[in-house]
Amino acid sequence: MKFYNKIVLTSLALLPTISIAELSGNVGYVSDYVYRGIYQEESSASFGVDYEAENGIYVGTWMADVGDGIESDFYAGFGGSYDNFSYGLGFTGYYYSDGWDNAYEEINLSFGYGFVTLDYADGTYKAPVETKYSVTSLTIETPVGLYITAGSFGKDNSGDWTEIGYGIELDSGVGMSVALISSDNLGVTQDNATATHINNSNILTTPSNQLVFGVSYGFGL
């Protein structure tokens, strides 16, 4: 699961849709939009376009309905693999229309071996009170579609989440998935308690446990 392909509406529980084709598109829907353990919106439709060169360079965009606005993500970077090892370095920006939230911009690092992948993001929340955050997560994926992710926030944010899920992708390009996401104490650290973080007030109402269903369709362009 490539960290830059947010059709994992990620913790959103959708399958990655980049294929051998250099240019690809994807559409998706989830019963609840949850990202990194944080509830974003009740149900969400999405659309994305990705370009991946043979040398590992990638660039793409991903957009999702967030109720009162549109989330638009833009990302670019480089990824590759050698034997059982994989790696990636990139940039991701998250932007929102209609004042739904302020922007997030982050550097992404990814290292994997076999079925295990370690992801790290170091970012800035572009609010009136600008703050820093980090996100570290470890994912174990099995060949049969089962996976588990454990993640934690750092710097000016705090909290942890876990996600256990299962996904399949059919030859037709249709993917289906289900995930149980559990969150614990997601929020702002005490010394930055006056700042608003992560979808404004929604961070305060993130359920402890969420069951998310997703469907996606990937296609070449």
How would you explain this protein's 3D organization?
The chain is an all-beta fold and 221 residues long. It has one domain: Porin (Beta Barrel). It has no helices and 14 strands. The strands form two sheets. Strands 1-4-5-6-7-8-9-10-11-12-13-14 form a twelve-stranded antiparallel beta barrel. β2 and β3 form a beta hairpin. It is globular, with a radius of gyration of 16 Å.
Counted beta strands: 14
* Name of the level-1 CATH class: Mainly Beta
Order of helices and strands: EEEEEEEEEEEEEE
Radius of gyration: 16 Å
Report the mean per-residue pLDDT as an integer: 83
Going by CATH, what is the homologous superfamily? monomeric porin ompg
Domain count: the total is: 1
CATH topology (fold) name: Porin
At CATH level 2, the architecture is Beta Barrel
State the end-to-end distance. Answer: 21 Å
- Which shape, going by the Cα principal axes? globular
In brief, what are we looking at here?
The chain has about 220 residues and is mainly β. The chain contains no helices and 14 strands. It has a single domain (about 25-220), classed as monomeric porin ompg (Porin), CATH 2.40.160.40.
List keywords for this structure.
mainly beta; disordered N terminus; single chain; globular; 221 residues
Topology:
Elements: E1 23-30, E2 33-35, E3 38-41, E4 44-52, E5 57-65, E6 70-82, E7 85-96, E8 103-113, E9 116-126, E10 131-141, E11 146-155, E12 157-169, E13 174-188, E14 209-220
Antiparallel strand pairs: 1-4, 1-14, 2-3, 4-5, 5-6, 6-7, 7-8, 8-9, 9-10, 10-11, 11-12, 12-13, 13-14
